[in-house]
Write a structure and sequence with these properties.
The protein is an all-alpha fold. The protein has 15 helices and no strands. The chain has helices spanning 2-21, 24-42, 58-94, 106-125, 129-153, 158-181, 183-188, 192-201, 204-230, 233-270, 276-309, 314-333, 339-342, 346-369, 373-398. Helix 2 runs antiparallel to helix 9. The radius of gyration is 21 Å and the shape is globular.
Length: 407
């Protein structure tokens, strides 16, 4: 968690400088690029990396890791072909000519996102949490160093996008380096038969969790297309930056606790222990940690953003103030969401995700119709908060199901 804290703190602490080097419009272009690579990158392994944690036999886990990397390579190559054929149409959809040259880097970024995801869970399975933390710090440091160095010499979104690409590459290499230098040892454990067997055994990750993850990714990334359609790049950039700052505590604390919870809950499941006390403890601790911080943000965010990031980011502060309750609830819910995977309730969890993205789209459409971006974010914050309260209750309830109902 310490490493994760450092990794999340670096870009937040450096944000007052970045907001003076880059404009909301620059962050809007970054948001559009990341929306493409993250949406595809999230499903580039067909979500089999999540299954790495589940088998008791380490050899099965190795072959699931290999399966994830094979699928990731195929998806990355397919994305390159799509970009080469439909580049003009994609640029028209994104509405930003500045992204034309960067589209060619999208498949590379997608590939390394997949590599990072696969080895992140491999490292978690092996309880080498230090390696996970180092990778995050390396990734974050690379992003910030590139943002600053390029930002000082060249205006525009170049520094933001190149930093995102390089950061993803470095983070993935740090996690996978040990396997790369010991590839022969890794290769000896591989078996085409075991890869096929595990692909079939954990096919729910392909059939259920992949569309779930795709919809889930649309929650944070796909809505940028609707925002840019109805509103300006200033609004998109302001929302993107506000969301990034508010999500920092979620990534800072929730991200680390999520991985530890997944490992502990998986073990408890295998040992046939009751997981509900672990969930309640997580809820209580996250509430006590997050409430003071999010209360301060809710009361003073516009003034904080104007003072810390400069007056041109006041709109971002106003948007942040509106969505604080929603992000706070997300801070509590997110770390325990993996219970749906452990208890084989991915299909039901997908409906929650689908409801969430529907509520977000509905809020943006209503606000867009009235040409009122604040109305969009107010409706989004209220409705999505209500859904998260339902999720809090549902995650706790499914944790008491009999093991015969799970894998």
């Amino acid at each position: 968690m310490t490493g994760t804290a450092i990794a999340q703190a670096i870009p937040v602490l450096i944000s007052p400088i970045l907001t003076r080097l880059y404009t909301p419009e620059d962050f809007a272009v970054l948001a559009l690029f990341m929306s493409v690579v993250v949406i595809i990158g999230t499903i580039s392994t067909a979500r089999y990396e999540l299954a790495i944690m589940l088998p008791k036999n380490k050899k099965d886990a190795v072959n699931i890791l290999a399966l994830s990397l094979i699928i990731n390579t195929i998806i990355s190559l397919l994305s390159l072909i799509v970009i080469l054929i439909f580049k003009d149409q994609i640029i028209s959809l994104l509405g930003s000519e500045e992204l034309r040259i960067w589209l060619y880097f999208a498949p590379v970024t997608i590939f390394f996102i997949g590599v990072y995801q696969a080895f992140n869970y491999w490292s978690t399975r092996n309880k080498t949490f230090t390696k996970n933390a180092i990778s995050r710090v390396a990734q974050s440091s690379t992003i910030v160093a590139t943002n600053l160095s390029v930002g000082f010499v060249k205006a525009g979104p170049v520094g933001l996008i190149s930093g995102a690409i390089l950061g993803q590459i470095i983070g993935a290499l740090v996690l996978s380096w040990k396997t790369l230098i010991n590839f022969n040892k890794f290769r000896k454990q591989l078996s085409v038969k075991l890869i096929k067997t595990n692909a079939k055994k954990y096919s729910n990750f392909l059939k259920i969790n992949t569309p779930h993850a795709f919809i889930d990714s649309l929650q944070d990334n796909g809505i940028v297309y609707i925002i840019i359609y109805f509103f300006s790049k200033v609004i998109l950039g302001s929302y993107s930056f506000a969301f990034r700052i508010l999500k920092a505590p979620v990534g800072l604390i929730g991200g680390a606790m999520s991985q530890v919870f997944y490992q502990k809950a998986s073990k408890a499941y295998h040992d046939r222990e009751n997981i509900q006390p672990l969930i309640l403890k997580m809820y209580k601790n996250l509430f006590l940690i997050g409430f003071p911080l999010f209360l301060i943000l809710f009361l003073f965010t516009p003034d904080i953003f104007s003072f810390v990031f400069s007056e041109k980011w006041r709109v971002a502060g106003e948007i942040a103030q509106i969505i604080v309750p929603w992000i706070f609830l997300n801070f509590i819910v997110s770390p325990v969401s993996s219970i749906a995977i452990i208890m084989n309730k991915q299909k039901e969890a997908m409906f929650i995700t689908f409801a969430d993205i529907s509520l977000r789209i509905g809020a943006l459409l209503i606000g867009g119709y009235y040409n009122d971006y604040k109305l969009s974010f107010i409706l989004m914050s209220i409705t999505c908060s209500m859904l998260l309260i339902f999720a809090l209750i549902w995650y706790y309830r499914i944790a008491k199901l009999k093991t015969s109902d799970a894998y």
